[in-house]
Design goal:
It is a single chain. By secondary structure, this protein is an alpha/beta fold. The protein folds into two domains: 171 residues, Rossmann fold, CATH 3.40.50.720; 137 residues, Orthogonal Bundle (N-(1-d-carboxylethyl)-l-norvaline Dehydrogenase, domain 2), CATH 1.10.1040. The strands form two sheets. Strands 3-2-1-4-5-8-9-10 form an eight-stranded mixed β-sheet, with helices on both faces. Strands 6-7 form a two-stranded antiparallel sheet. It is globular. The chain starts with 7 loop residues before the first strand and ends with a helix.
Length: 322
């Protein structure tokens, strides 16, 4: 690939997921710039580090946000001063945002793409989701992701920037469905970790997965996405992968809770930020506000709040009605 043919991409956010996506882009041969205000960051091989958001915006038309959902609005607002409508803005956040800033519970939830749309002049937006793990992308282990945008141009740009011998991207035009799928599966993965740590039967885990995805598809459809998006790699595939992804942070939190750890200790044991813990009660509030029946999410809320016991959880798993 010649220099003229190489894709250019800027990754905004140097947490573990940002580092992993930057590594994947560099491995694909893209000229990759990583923005971080933290001086101690060691960028992956082939990735250049910058502390200047303006430099990141000028470097590439394709910009990928990998910041936590609770600061996404502030980062998007700052980015808006440096970009124009020509930019393609994509995020890889497994979360949803409140209408206002902060982590507070709020029945009104918006996607990160909605936040970017409101805070920047960008119109061509997208998201990355699916079952890839941070460690796998960092080391180049064969992985798959889902890229979503209402604009085929955005999906083409993502595939050009990230696909390599070890990474495949599957496109969808259902951006909203993908964003809600990523957020919902992140929450449900905590339940899978809990169930597996209790050593319940594979059949019961399968029942939890199938019922969870039925519930998640109802929620996503009520939010304006396509229910069928949850039945593919972005939903079912992502949740099925949790069975073997013992190191996935959400799974580790669920397993720690099953071992009796309080939520603060479980989060510390996960070793990474877990959007799901604060998101679960907000989704429950959203479900209630929008009259969406979602008993599994209500049970997850009781779990993270320490309001239920092991036996009650198993009873609920056995008795959930469709």
């Amino acid at each position: 690939m010649t220099a003229e043919q190489r894709s250019q991409v800027s990754v905004v956010g140097a947490g573990e997921w940002g580092l992993a996506l930057a590594a994947a882009a560099a491995r694909a041969g893209s000229e990759t710039l990583l923005f971080s205000r933290r001086g101690e960051v060691r960028p992956p091989k082939g990735v250049t580090l910058t502390k200047d958001l303006g430099v990141a915006a000028r470097h590439a038309r394709l910009i990928v946000l990998t910041v936590p959902s609770n600061v996404a609005r502030d980062v998007a607002h700052a980015l808006g001063d440096h970009i124009s409508g020509r930019h393609l803005i994509v995020h890889g956040v497994r979360g949803l945002a409140s209408v206002s800033s902060g982590d507070q519970a709020n029945a009104e939830l918006v996607t990160i793409a909605d936040v970017v749309r409101s805070e920047t002049p960008a119109k061509r937006l997208g998201a990355l989701g699916g079952p890839a793990l941070t460690a796998d992308l960092l080391t180049g282990k064969p992985s798959v992701l889902v890229c979503g945008s209402a604009y085929e141009e955005v999906n083409r740009a993502l595939r050009a920037a990230f696909e390599s011998r070890t990474l495949r991207l599957y496109p969808t035009l259902d951006l909203r469905g993908l964003e809600w799928a990523s957020a919902l599966v992140g929450c449900l993965a905590l339940g899978i970790g809990y169930a597996q740590a209790l050593d319940v039967s594979p059949g019961l885990v399968a029942a939890v997965i199938s019922r969870s995805m039925e519930e998640a598809s109802r929620i996503a459809a009520a939010a304006g996405g396509e229910a069928r998006t949850l039945l593919g790699l972005a939903g079912y595939g992502d949740l099925l992968a949790c069975i073997a992804q013992k190191e996935r942070p959400e799974v580790r939190v669920g397993a720690a809770l099953a071992q009796g750890a309080p939520i603060a200790k479980a989060l510390a044991m996960a070793g990474a930020r877990v959007e799901a813990v604060k998101l679960i009660p907000r989704i429950v509030a959203w479900n209630e506000h929008n009259a969406v029946r979602a008993p599994i999410f209500a049970s997850l809320q009781r779990l993270v709040r320490g309001e239920t016991s092991r036996d009650e959880i198993i009873d609920n798993l056995m008795m959930f009605e469709r």
